[in-house]
Amino acid sequence: MVPERWARIEHLYHSALAVDEAERAHFLEATCAGDESLRREVESLLAGEKQAQNFLESPAVQLAVKTVTSDAARAQSPKADDLQLIGKTISHYRVLSKLGGGGMGIVYKAEDFKLGRLVALKFVPNSLLHDPRALQQLQLEAQAASALNHPHICTVHDTDEYEGRPFIVMEMLEGETLKQRLSGRELAVAQVVEFGIEIADAIDAAHAKGIIHRDIKAANIFVTTRGQVKVLDFGLAKLLPPGTDPSLTASIAETLAFAGTLPYMAPEQLQGRKSDMRSDVYAIGAVLYEMATGRLPFPNETTMQLVDDILHKAPLPPSRLNSRIDPGLERVILKCLEKKPGDRYQSAAELMSELEQLTPAQFPPAPLSQPQSRRRRIARVVILTALTLLIASSLWLGWNSRIAHGSPDIRSLAVLPLANLSRDSDQDYFADGMTEQLTTDLGQISALRVISRTSAMHYKGTNRKLPDIARELGVDAVVEGSVERAGNQVRITAQLIEAATDRHLWASSYEGDLRNVLSLQDDVAQAIANEIKIKLTAQERAHLATARAVDPQAHEAYLRGLHELHGMTAEPTEVLRGQSLERAVRYFQEAVDRDPKDALAYSGLADAYDDMSTHYRAPLQVMPNAKAAAIKAVELDDTLAEAHASLGYVAFSFDWDWSRAEHEFRRALELNPSLARAHAGYAEYLLFVARRSNEALQELQRAYALDPLLPLSHGDLAWLSFLARRYNEAIDAGKRVGHDDNVEALSYAELGQYGPALAAAEHGEKSTHSPVILSQIAAAYALAGRKDKARAMLPGIEGQARQRYVCGFNVAGVYASLGDKDQALAWLEKAYLARSD
Questions:
Q1: Residue 835 in 3-state DSSP?
Q2: 257 three-state secondary structure
Q3: Rounded to an integer, what distance in angstroms lies between the CA atom of residue 231 and that of residue 595?
């Protein structure tokens, strides 16, 4: 349908509504001027008006589109709209079930097996598949929502097409719509304020991007199982060109759509005048009214009466319907619903600020007779009591977080992988690097135990429930959020969630230039510390206040280096790991070349060379480079824990300078008690040099508490237990890890349990090509009585040693187990000359 014809239909439709029903036939005969097709289309809209409830709960544009589709499309059965996709694979999505459908879309639950997460797929129904306006609306929804990055807006991940049917891929949400939650009942006043703040915050973010929603209503607001609001459905949004004043949107005639859902529409929208962000403020006011009273401001069931009420009648004060309404909240709601845009709040930000100024501790709780769970009532009482105590003790920090309810006792947390909202998968390294740096910042707070980034990354792209994640990691709270980068501009959004209750305690966003990204991260860490009432030392406060500016290109290279150094969450093959380390070295070297004062980049360079020396390159070849980089890092920033840990490993594994190694590891732990790598290095010093095995294993357990899911990243408890001659503990640790067949085989053999030793050795031999692991398995065969098997493995191991670096200690172990002392000593001599660790 051409735009001009649609505009004429719409004009006639609204004109006919103002005419008495008995006179409409005569009116249409005169105005349609013999155009029978035009008349039928207007009559279809008028017929739909009689189904008042459906009309009142659907955007007018949806009803219009449905009624002007072809007779053939309307004749399709309901099953025709069900695309029968359940069980099918579309691109890299597997459709699991149908979630529901409406006038403009059918939504399916699907598994993104590429990223291991659940998503929602929204398709245009069959009945609208050939309607260009329906397709345009779906595209508009994707375009508008994907331009936004906000914790209270449903995320759009992607758009695609399947067999000619376009669809959008959205964040999968668990919970219910606000309409479902209300069901004609009011919410507690504190809940109304909290939800109102979150809705206004989301709409403010949209307005800042030049996007007017135009269909805010209870059915388009989702409340997750965590109690978090998500604004949905930007299908009727108006996207303004860059640089356009958001207050100057097109009129109805210009947009060719009667946009909005009638009970929530502002007077200027109904009158066809220019609508702007203040029209969204009106709709938020209608939602606030509905939450506070259980009904809409103008609940008339007939369209004509409803339009007249919105245009001319003042809404009944909410306190007349709910005596528990706070006067301040009532004032805010009624100001939103003013007839003239100039009399309302002029922006969602202004509305949000007004809501934040209300005093939640003074709000009365909902009556116990109101249908709600005992758990929810108790939670609300606890929240209100906590807020009262905070105010009484002068510790109330304001509603800057917009979601804070209190400050429970939090002494451990994990930073979950920050989502990359840059709409470019190549930017994953940036989000991962920011995750690691925020983890490091928080780890420097001595009163906090912060889980290592390597374990937290295990949950990247998963939909595990936060309480489950927190329990597995053993933490009181988690930090989750997102990173969005556009050129040299960065936006970090973070929120703090209490693990036991899945309750949001704090959330905020920080934006700035990439040069100041370290300051942004420090601001997030400082805010979290303030929120959970962690007392910072003078040194910690100074560190969080003195972040230096960075060179954007150098910092990008540094983050890419981190991604290569720590990016593999699954155990990689030696070849892949070696290639990743080579790339890490190149990126870190690029970073220090561009910014010779970047201590973090020098520390990363030292760690990459150090990791190379373990299995991939001879220590004499790469460790001098590691030493030079570590020394430079410490010289540039003596307060950088990572730099001291890097130097500690150099002193321990290459220089064999035991006192220096101990000093550096201890210094690193003073600066960052949550640095798992430093705990693991200190454990090795205690075991191999100080011979204090009990303390060593305790220190390694501390490393495991900080990095429970990826133990190989900071040392192997099973291997160190074996070297401490604690064979039963080594077996138990190996079984927990699940891939230490070599250690289990050696430990069983030392205990004289040859059957289990041979079984573990056979299993391990089939699962690896590593000459180091194969050497240990061969030694286990020899100790368990299969010397023939051990000798048969030696040519392959020594053949690899001629082609690449293999630590001579491990080959010596095979010969020692075979009783060949001369060959064992020869390989030990090679290990000594190579400065093997």
A1: coil
A2: coil
A3: 43
Query: Which tens digit of pLDDT belongs to each residue from 583-636?
Result: 999 999 999 999 999 998 999 999 999 988 876 788 888 899 999 999 999 999
Residue 732: Cβ within 10 Å count:
16
Tell whether pTM > 0.70: no
Q: Which helix (H) or strand (E) holds 166?
A: strand 165-171
Say which DSSP state 320 is in.
H
Q: How confident is the model at residue 714 (pLDDT cuts 50, 70, 90)?
A: very low
**Cβ-count burial 584-614 (b if 16+ within 10 Å, e if not):** bbbbbbbbbebbeebbbbbbbbbbbbbbbbb
- Let me know if 260 is exposed, middle or buried by CB neighbors in 10 A (0-12, 13-18, 19+): buried
Q: What is the pLDDT, as a whole number, of residue 704? A: 77
Q: What's the CA gap between 727 and 749, in Å, rounded?
A: 9
Which pairs from 49-54 meet CB under 8 Å and 24+ separation?
Answer: 49/17, 49/303, 52/301, 52/302, 52/303, 53/301
Helix ranges (H only) for 417-547 are 428-443, 453-456, 466-473, 517-531, 538-544
Query: Which are the contacts of 131, defined by CB distance < 8 A and separation ≥ 6?
Result: 65, 69, 73
| Inter-CA distances, 810 with 577, 615, 730, 797, 828, Å | 20, 11, 18, 10, 9
- Number of neighbouring beta carbons within 10 Å of residue 571: 10
- Count Cβ atoms below 10 Å from residue 304 Cβ, excluding itself: 14
DSSP characters for 71-133? HHHHTS-HHHHS---TT-EETTEEEEEEEEEETTEEEEEEEETTTTEEEEEEE--GGGTT-HH
The question of whether 428 is a catalytic residue gets the answer: no
d(CA 228, CA 202): 12
- Contact between residue 221 and residue 287 where contact means Cβ atoms under 8 Å apart: yes
pLDDT, mean of residues 172-185: 86
C-beta separation of 588 from 599 below 8 A: no
Alpha carbons 506 and 497: distance in angstroms, whole number: 7
Provide mean pLDDT across the span 674-694.
Answer: 87
Name the active-site residue from 215, 595, 716, 837.
215
Q: Which position has the higher pLDDT, 573 or 447?
A: 447
Q: What is the DSSP letter of 426?
A: G
Considering only CA atoms, which of 602, 611, 560, 524 is closest in space to residue 433?
A: 560
d(CA 726, CA 298): 76
Give yes or no for residue 27 having a pLDDT over 80.
no
C-beta separation of 178 from 323 below 8 A: no
Dihedral of CA atoms 377, 505, 181, 465 in degrees, nearest 10, equals -110
pLDDT at 366: 42
Q: What is the pLDDT averaged over residues 364-369?
A: 41
Strand 477-486 with 489-498, pairing: antiparallel
Asked whether the beta carbons of 212 and 276 are under 8 A apart, the reply is yes
Residue 500 tokens, joined: 């036991």
Tokens of 287: 């939602």
Read off the DSSP letter of residue 655: I
For the residues of 436-460, what is the DSSP string, one character each?
A: HHHHHHHHT-TT-EE--HHHHGGGT
Side chain identity at residue 788, one-letter code: D
Instruction: Pick the most confident of 44-58, 68-82, 235-249, 261-275.
Output: 261-275
Rounded (10°) CA dihedral 817, 819, 824, 826: -160
- Assigned token pair, 174: 């668990």
Question: Cα separation of 474 and 471, whole Å?
Answer: 5
Decide if pLDDT at 335 tops 60: yes
Closest of 602, 557, 601 to residue 583, by C-alpha: 557
Give the Cα separation of 238 and 274 in Å (integer).
12
Per-residue three-class SS string for 43-87: HHHHHHHHCHHHHHCCCHHHHHHHHCCCHHHHCCCHHHHCCCCCC
What's the rounded Cα separation, in Å, for the pair 290 and 303? Answer: 19
Residues 483, 430 contacting (CB under 8 angstroms): yes
